[in-house]
Amino acid sequence: MLFSLTEEQLMIQSMVREFSRKVIAPTAAERDKTKEFPSKNFKQMGELGLMGMMVPPEYGGEGADTISYVLALSEIAYSCASTSVVMSVQNSIVCESILKFGTEEQKKKFLTPLASGKIIGAFALTEPEAGSDPVSQTTTAVKDKDEYIINGTKRFITSGKNCSVVIVTAKTDEAAGHRGISAFLIPKNLKGFSVGHIEDKMGLRASDTTDLIFENCRVPAENILGKEGDGFKIAMSGLDCGRIGIAAQSLGVAEAAFDASVKYTRQRKQFGCAISKHQGIRWQIADMATQIEAARQLVLSAAAMKDRKEKFTTQASMAKLFASEMVNQITARAIQLHGGYGFTKDYDVERYYRDARVFTIYEGTSEIQRIVISNNILKDKRNP
Length: 384
Ligand code: CAA
Known about the structure:
The chain is an alpha+beta fold.
């Protein structure tokens, strides 16, 4: 392995692995059926410091580095992808954005309960007609003395139903393009703020994905995150970290599908021996292991760049692009290796396949990652 992990990183990995396999895994298949949000698990994860891992202890977090965070997130994803997406959004786009752009007051009021896992947070950028192109969003925020009046609908919001506070982007200046978008910290209990349609999804079924509706919702002006016009930058920089999270989540699900496949091919007998003895199967196992290892190196490398405070936008997109495509290939192969059994709900690979499908879509599609990567290469004057 290229990366040598520190003792502390290895300790966090092993602690989360034990917790994840003992507490999260046994109920994951049931949660997939019932769609029950695992509130109790998040409470425990909060106590273990997993809901604000990179937030300093003075704001209720763990003060861990990004490498520890991706190791922990992969371990949770290994057992339950629905649980890991909530952990990912909370840690990266929500907590990191408040830590980076919030005032001292906002950190005390919102970041501390979020990072300690007492409340769940969400991030609302996407709208019915604005997904890959968030600048075309139509939610508005109009200043009225010491308040902003928010109107609009957000779509596909992870934890929309179960969260207590949301970072919401809205237009404060229609004519200013991306510089006319601002971000607001909006508590759930404000008048004029309601949860709309709840999606019935193919995967990640225990994580709620909802519309959020704002009808003349009055938000105190002090709840603006950053300055007026900073919203797009806040969203993009939050997504940089978020994309490392989705890559780590992809890695965890791929490892689970791979381990299940190795176990099954050792046990399943056809043509007089375990199918793992057949060369056609062995080559698939070798290819899967190689793809997973390549993704791991990209995820750790992007996380290490963030920890070194280097610009990591391109590497985060590369990690997200590669790892999310990889896990879709791995989970499809895992089903193939399980044959007819892989197509039934008796085997976890069926759930892994459905859960992984959205990874190439949310927090920026694979096509968007390619735009980010190529834009950054082509605008860099150092490149020939
Ligand atoms: N960090 C900080 N600022 C950034 C940035 C970054 N990574 N990337 C861009 N910016 C800034 C630029 O500096 C620029 O600002 P100035 O003009 O003031 O200098 C501004 O943003 C515009 O930059 P670009 O011209 O490069 O942006 P663009 O418009 O060409 O491209 C895009 C933008 C990459 C296509 C972007 O719109 C994008 O990422 N789209 C996908 C959105 C997305 O990922 N949506 C997923 C929703 S979240 C989700 O899935 C929720 C969930 O719950 C899981």
